[in-house]
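Entry type: protein chain
Record version: 2
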Amino acid sequence: MLSFTKAYDITIVLGVQNPTYPGDTPFARTAPHAAPGADPEVTEANQITMGTHNGTHLDSPAHFFPHSAHLDDFPVSHFIRPALVVEISDPEAVRASELVDVELDEGEAILFRTRNSREGLVTSGVFTESFVPIARDAAQWCVDHGVSLVGHDYITVDPYGDGEAPAHRLLLGNGVVILEGVNLRDVPAGRYTLICLPLSMQGAEGSPCRAVLLQ
């Protein structure tokens, strides 16, 4: 049985906290009618619409490389793994210069805690262009150090408007799954067990998930 003393829910609340990337399908929930044949006074059947990259979500390599791995090509164990939360002080980007002293265990995930979490940008419900992205050299550092999964506290790892998308392409192109849109505001730097299970969908390039860190 998995043993832990504390659980941090690092998922942003859909419809309340989640910024929506410009052009993406926003989250919406409606209750158009009760369940078929049921009494509307005692039952409720909601309907939701959203893009697969809204809220706290996972990117598979197929997100940028259509003929590569989708989320269902990974074993479920890939989304349950040891993880290291690293504090990033640079207000502009996650850079390799802040990772020189980081030591990773084999197969460990890494999550970056930036001012996106500390200042509440990831939970504001409003998209901003002035978030902290992951710089190209930091993405390359993750690839070079064999990181299995990269977590970031905004809904995209690349700077807004950067059509080259270097962090996405470096990570996904090397088989590194990306977990975007996590809220690490209350999570101290350190080691945890990460659980971030995608929805069970065939051929999905991305998926919302519920992400938690166990201590």
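Comment: The chain has one domain: 7-18+52-214.
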